[in-house]
Design a protein that fits this description.
This protein has 256 residues and is mainly β. It is 5% helix and 71% strand.
Length: 256
């Protein structure tokens, strides 16, 4: 069987990045360790400008069947330039087995954001080709809570052509699967602003609330104005990932 090996040891500012990868036949192992490195050089790889620091590790392995792995990553005082007013601290922990992916995410910002997310999702994994995909026929669980300004969390999601600000509030716990959703939860934003730079769409005075429960995903409220006036409202939702409808009404409004 063929064998491929690669290793990387790089000083990044006053931090260090170690990485290694090995494939032998259908088996593989890989890991990366980031030791208190500045975010800016890593962000530049995907064309972003950022400040702050990153520390953590990621590993992935397979003996020819599914994949296993884990991750533990911290971001401290992180800021993505131009799209985020305050800095963000974030801790991400994940564990992968051939059939499940569990993760927790905790985030706080100097602007007052406090967010927690955890999930236990069924997955299908393979080493050749390298693949991690949601197994829709089995059930998973998710729980979340979020309160505070939206901009830091939105920027951390790496959506470079969009911006969102406003006050977020939400919490809930659900169980999901193919055509199945149970539990109770919601997410809402008040006094929001949204902009998509590619399409030119801009919304102000955005108030929205989405519920997740045995009905599926339901838009309980969605209203917004355009920068030059007018009004946009939306209603509807989805019973499952294959069935749903949304109605949008636009009244004397230019969104772009």
């Amino acid at each position: 069987a063929g064998r491929t090996q690669a290793a990387l040891n790089v000083a990044m500012g006053d931090g260090v990045v170690h990485a290694q990868w090995e494939e032998r036949g259908r088996a593989l192992t890989g890991s990366a360790q980031i030791e208190d490195a500045p975010l800016a050089p890593l962000a530049a790889i995907w064309g972003e400008r950022a400040t702050g620091r990153i520390d953590g590790r990621i590993s992935l392995a397979s003996n020819g069947g599914g994949l296993t792995g884990d991750a533990d990553i911290r971001l401290d005082d992180a800021r993505v330039s131009g799209r985020q007013r305050g800095t963000l601290d974030m801790h991400i922990v994940g564990n992968l087995t051939p059939g499940r992916l569990t993760s927790t995410v905790d985030a706080t910002s100097e602007g007052g954001l406090v967010a927690h997310f955890e999930a236990d999702a069924p997955v299908e994994t393979s080493a050749a080709p390298l693949r991690i995909a949601l197994a829709r026929e089995r059930r998973g669980r998710a729980r979340w809570s979020v309160r505070g300004p939206a901009d830091s969390l939105w920027a951390a999601a790496r959506l470079p052509d969009q911006s969102l600000s406003g006050a977020l509030d939400g919490e809930g716990e659900i169980e999901f699967g193919a055509g199945y959703l149970s539990g109770d939860g919601h997410i809402e934003i008040v006094d929001g602003r949204f902009e998509d730079k590619l399409s030119g769409v801009r919304l102000v005075d955005l108030d929205a609330r989405v519920a997740l429960d045995e009905r599926g995903v339901t838009i309980e409220n969605f209203t917004a104005s355009g920068p030059r006036g007018g009004r946009l409202t939306a209603t509807g939702g989805s019973v499952n990932d294959r069935q749903g409808s949304i109605t949008v009404d636009v009244d004397t409004m230019r969104v772009a």
